[in-house]
Design a protein that fits this description.
Structural class: mainly alpha
Low-confidence stretches: 522-578
Radius of gyration: 70 Å
Strand content: under 5%
Helix content: over 70%
Shape: flat
Strand order of the largest sheet: 1-2
Number of helices: 6
CATH topology of one domain: Helix Hairpins
Distance between the termini: 52 Å
Order of helices and strands: HEEHHHHH
Number of strands: 2
């Protein structure tokens, strides 16, 4: 039971401690929010900042909102002044541009009138020049007709005389073609005879090539056999040299090992002799010590002499053992070197055998290739001789065809000459009738030229009338008509109204914290929404008032103070949350 009460007491004490800490935390939050600090008497005293204003986050937010509203008013006033001045400048610029545009229109209109009058004057000049040109063209046509008539009479005499010369020329041309045909026949027969003789020489040359290739092939095959025999002899010499080197190396290894054994035996004898001499000198020294000293000195001297003797003997024995080990190692290395030389000699001998087999195969391939080249050469020569025979036969056929073609061309030339003579006679008969027809054509052409000139003059007159109507159509209207209705003097910019503002709500002090009572969540945020929403409403109100006003020419709602007011209101709202 006592244990349970003790546990309950601890719980109660823990709860009381938590209540006390919560109360202290509430006092600190109350002081932070409203600047009221509890003194020793239990009264809440207002605290002040360094600048003399009331302390506390709520009071700071209120002061910040008031300052923001003042800045908003100042910014709105500056924006209103800027917009009014901008509207005035835009109006003045528009007025200047309107006056400049009207001046340009007046100059353009005056220039158009000048162009209209000049165009009418130009049309009259062009009309006179066109009529004069048309009359000149008609006169030139009559002059041209007179020269054409003279040309027709001259052509009549020329064509009559030319026909006689043409008949004589046709007969002479036929005679020349007959002589040329006979010459070409003789030439074809001579060429055929010459080509046949040349074909015999080319055939003999191909037969000589066959004999030459067969001799070269036999020479090449004999050379391949000699090269193979030389390489085989060289391989046998290399194998003998390798075996001799291996045997020499074995003899050298045996000699070196024998020398090492003899050196080792000599070293053993020298070591035994040295040990014996050391023992004799030690015994002599010990006897001398016994004779010259007595007592403990004698014993120590004898011990020192025997110890020195033992060390020297041990050194000699150890040197002997190490010399034997070194000699055995050298002998083993000599044997290994000998075995390596023998193995290398065996590998070299195998390589020589492989090379011999490859050389034999290569020689056989060379002989086969020589036989193949010989057969290919014989076949190619035979083909060339067949081509020579075929070429001779083709030349026979071509010569026969060419002779037939020469005879056909001669017959065709004879027929063509006869036809040409008949054509000359026909043309001579038609010259007179053509002369009369050309006289009639020339007369009709002059009559047509007179009628055409008359119609062209009428077309020139109609073209002048059309050009005058086009100039009248391009004549501009007077730009002064209706200007008083769009004069910017009647559209001066209006004054922009200032926005209305609402002052921030002054914060109220809530009840102080009470120990043991739960702190309400509204204690901290009760005053925040008022200040924050007041700042936001201030910004939106400024934006609405600014955008609802009238702007001058060139201004839009985007250039008003709305975005700035909105930014200030949102900033005040954000600061009111922290």
């Amino acid at each position: 039971m006592s244990g349970g009460r003790s546990q309950q007491n601890k719980i109660i004490e823990h709860q009381n401690e938590q209540i006390r800490k919560q109360y202290e935390m509430d006092l600190k939050n109350y002081e932070f929010q409203y600047g009221l600090k509890k003194d020793e008497d239990g009264n809440f005293v207002q605290q002040y900042d360094e600048d003399g204003s009331k302390a506390g986050a709520i009071q700071d937010q209120y002061e910040f909102a008031v300052e923001g509203l003042n800045l908003r008013k100042q910014a709105d006033q500056e924006t209103n002044d800027y917009q009014m001045e901008t509207a005035r400048q835009n109006w003045e610029q528009g007025k200047s541009m309107q006056e400049f545009q009207w001046q340009q229109e007046d100059r353009i209109y005056q220039k158009n009138i000048d162009q209209y009058e000049n165009q009418l004057e130009f049309n009259s000049l062009e009309y006179g020049d066109a009529i004069a040109r048309e009359r000149t063209v008609l006169d030139e046509r009559f002059i041209e007709a007179a020269f054409q008539n003279q040309g027709l009479i001259q052509d009549l005499y020329e064509q009559t005389g030319t026909a006689g010369f043409a008949k004589t020329q046709a007969k002479l041309g036929l005679l020349a073609k007959e002589e040329t045909a006979e010459y070409q026949k003789q030439k074809q027969l001579i060429n055929l005879k010459q080509n046949t003789g040349a074909a015999k020489y080319r055939t003999a040359e191909q037969e000589l090539d066959i004999l030459n290739r067969r001799g070269e092939t036999r020479y090449q095959q004999a050379g391949i056999g000699l090269n193979l025999a030389r390489e085989e002899a060289d391989a046998r010499f290399r194998k003998a040299n390798i075996l001799l080197d291996a045997k020499t190396q074995t003899q050298l290894t045996d000699y070196q090992n024998e020398m090492i054994r003899r050196e080792q035996n000599k070293q053993s004898l020298d070591s035994a002799h040295a040990i014996e001499q050391q023992t004799i000198r030690g015994l002599q020294a010990a006897g001398q010590a016994q004779l010259s000293q007595a007592g403990r000195s004698q014993g120590k001297a004898v011990q020192m002499i025997m110890a020195e003797l033992g060390r020297n003997n041990n050194y000699i024995a150890e040197s002997l053992v190490r010399g034997q080990d070194a000699a055995e190692a050298r002998m083993r290395q000599n044997k290994i070197n000998n075995l390596n030389v023998i193995q290398k000699a065996a590998l070299a001998e195998q390589q020589i055998d492989v090379n011999s087999v490859m050389n034999i195969q290569k020689a056989m391939m060379g002989v086969q290739e020589a036989d193949r080249n010989l057969k290919m050469g014989d076949a190619r020569s035979q083909l060339n001789m067949d081509q020579i025979k075929k070429a001779v036969m083709d030349q026979y056929e071509n010569a026969e065809v060419d002779v037939r073609k020469i005879e056909q061309d001669l017959k065709q030339a004879q027929s063509s000459t006869g036809l040409s003579l008949k054509e000359i006679d026909f043309k001579t008969a038609n010259v007179g009738s053509r002369f009369k027809t050309n006289q009639d054509i020339l007369k009709a052409s002059l009559e047509s030229a007179v009628a055409t000139s008359d119609m062209n003059m009428k077309d020139i007159y109609r073209a002048k009338q059309s050009a005058d109507l086009a100039a009248e159509a391009r004549k501009m209207l007077d730009p002064n008509v209706g200007r008083e209705d769009i004069d910017l003097e009647n559209f001066r910019p209006l004054d922009i109204p200032l926005p209305k503002y609402q002052n921030p709500l002054e914060p109220k002090i809530p009840p102080a914290p009470i120990q043991g009572a739960m702190q309400s969540q509204m204690g901290m945020g009760a005053a925040i929404p008022g200040a924050a929403l007041g700042g936001a409403a201030m910004g939106f109100g400024a934006y609405s008032a600014a955008t609802a006003g009238a702007f001058g020419p060139g201004l839009t709602a985007a250039s008003a103070a709305g975005p700035l007011g909105l930014a200030v209101g949102l900033g005040a709202f954000a600061l009111g949350l922290f």
